[in-house]
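Hey, can you fold this?
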Amino acid sequence: MARTLGIDYGRVRVGFAVSDELGIISTPLDVATVTGMTQAVAATTDRLRQTDATEVVVGQPLNMDGSESELSREVELFIDKLKQETDVPIHQWDERMTSMQAERVLIEGNVSREKRKKVKDKLAAQLILQSYLDSISF
């Protein structure tokens, strides 16, 4: 199996994670600070090249009741633009609570507020990707 790139899309920061070659373990990669969707797509295609990932999992920020949020529609637009730049398969994955879960892990680890802001998005991407990998490994 090849590597999978996990993405926690945000309007200002995009978090990235990558799987191992066996598709078992997700590892945080980095966070790109962006000023728009064009930069987010460019940052993603750069990470695809750097990691040799052959598929992408993008977190879908749904409301707690499962309905689409305003950001959900933006994520779909991001995916459409990403599909114009690459031919790798792109999957959407429910990301409800991943940012809160990442924040909780960092707080419990006594990570300072300033540092949390820098790493929360890549940890959220790792949680999204790990959840996806766990679902397909059974």
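Oh, and this one too while you're at it.
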Amino acid sequence: MQARIKAMEGQAVTSARFYLWREYLELCKPRVVALMVFTSLVGMFLATPDFVPVEALVFGTIGIGFMAGTAAAINHLVDQRIDGLMRRTMGRPLPTGRVDPISALIFVLALGGIGLAILAVLVNQLTALLTLLSLVGYSGVYTLYLKRATPQNIVIGGAAGAMPPVLGWTAVTGQIDPHALLLFLIIFAWTPPHFWALAIHRRNEYARAGVPMLPVTHGVAFTRLQILLYTLILVVVSVLPFVTRMSGWLYLGGTLILNAGFLYHAIALWLRDDAKLPMKTFGYSIVYLMALFAFLLLDHYLLI
């Protein structure tokens, strides 16, 4: 009987430990980090006509992923009060108490320290420096200040989120290239229509939390117009890789199709007061970015 009780207790401890790891994984926002790592990988492959060196591919991906997860966890720490007020985020580990702030802070320091060390020692110092600056920009400038200070928070703060392909590029070459900056510009232009679509859907929660998102401060109609205008900017920016001969016809064809879809969603959102359209636009924007970078990669190797 005692052996059975001990076995059950052991199973309970094992289950609790596994569950705790899931909580820390959630702190890293794995879906967001996966998209960032994917764009950084594309940056790596576009940086060379050959296959990416194994060291840069493995250690660059791990280091950039760890640092992106660190930035996400810092966001959880800083925004735990706001997260507790919003239905979308109130179930996160910190607002619910499943992870305490001290443990989360230790996790942040450990994950960030390991990630930065990997980049500095096993990749190159430029990538480590740029990644650190990106983390400070997102966690410090955006999360601590801009998010609560201005409705243009996502526009200005979007620079940090647009850095992964540049980091991937520098991980391979050790230098910043103008073509890498084009990849940065694409994500920078993509971020406002992507995030403002979500903000329209969650505007009441942002208002309750005291976050001055654009639909809260300037209204939904104004935000819809801004989404359309930034989508038009994105359409122009997204064809620059073809114009500069960084990419070829395969990329151009795929991008034009993707742009047509984004414009359709943006125009529909601007013209119609449909509660479902903001999240449809948000969902399409994620597919758009993943597919666009996939076309960049296919074009690079199929038509080089």
